[in-house]
Specification:
Elements: H1 6-28, H2 45-51, H3 54-87, H4 93-105, H5 108-126, H6 134-159, H7 163-170, H8 175-204, H9 207-212, H10 220-229, H11 234-267
Length: 268
């Protein structure tokens, strides 16, 4: 093979490896046959059955509500932790940082088992939680999602010129006002990125949710996994196609906003 063509071939192979399986899922979501690997003509039948599947819709709505709540709480706590680690020097700072980042490298099965034992102990001690569900999944997801938010926001804080805060305080602003009006707008894109990352991690989690979810509180990944274990279901292809469409739309909007902002910056 010509050496000049090797990068192009490798790039095409990489794209094919990543996107051909996704494309096959999209194509077979319009397959009329109940056998997902046998093409029997074009049909939107499985989309109709998906929207009539009450269990799947309830699981999707529960996952979205949990992910939104987790992302908001994790963004708040992760930002506070990042500010503490980047702006302050205190005794136990290294230990605090290690504890915040630990869930990133801890196996999910260990986190899930530990939280299950914790919830069982608190229920025996103080009567909470009576049943595992939204609250227990929320707390469990926040424990690992805030670590990722902390990493993203702390990296942004390291690039912010601290003299801007000092200048604001020299002009009479309190430390809180200087942070809210000077630092927070500068790190807002990182906080937003952390929110989206936490939302995605929560929406995608299966292992930890399986430990801390109770009866009647199955998330979308848990329902999909249970369905796939019983055999390939064409409705899963339809669901995956809808998720791909939503993600592609979100990426397109984000790219448009970034391009618009870059254009406004270049003009100013």
């Amino acid at each position: 093979m010509n050496r000049s063509r090797f990068p192009t071939v490798a790039l095409l192979f990489g794209f094919a490896f990543l996107y051909v399986p996704i494309a096959s899922v999209i194509v077979y979501s319009f397959n009329a046959s109940p056998l997902v690997t046998v093409w029997a003509g074009f049909s939107t039948r499985w989309y109709g059955e998906l929207f009539a599947n009450r269990q799947m819709l309830e699981a999707a709505w529960l996952s979205v509500r949990i992910a939104a709540a987790v992302a908001t709480v994790a963004a708040l706590l992760g930002t506070l932790a990042a500010v503490a680690l980047a702006r302050f020097r205190f005794r136990g700072r290294a230990l605090f940082g290690s504890l915040v980042y630990a869930p990133m490298v801890m196996p999910e099965v260990v986190i899930g088992l530990a939280l299950l034992l914790l919830f069982a102990a608190t229920r025996d001690a103080v009567g909470w939680p009576e049943t595992r569900g939204f609250a227990t999944i929320l707390l469990a997801h926040v424990t690992f999602a805030m670590a990722f938010v902390t990493v993203v926001v702390r990296a942004r804080l390291a690039q912010v010129d601290r003299t801007l805060e000092d200048a604001a305080m020299d002009l009479g602003a309190t430390p809180t006002k200087a942070f809210l009006q000077v630092t927070l707008p500068l790190i807002a894109p990182a906080v937003g990125a952390g929110w989206l990352l936490a939302f995605t991690l929560s929406l995608d989690d299966l292992v930890i949710s399986s430990f801390v979810a109770g009866p009647g509180s199955s998330t979308l990944p848990m329902v999909v996994y249970s369905s796939v274990r019983l055999g390939l279901n064409p409705q899963i292809n339809a669901l995956a196609t809808l998720i791909v469409a939503v993600v592609a739309l979100a990426i397109g909007i984000a790219g448009w906003l970034m391009a618009r902002r870059a254009g406004a910056t270049s003009i100013s």
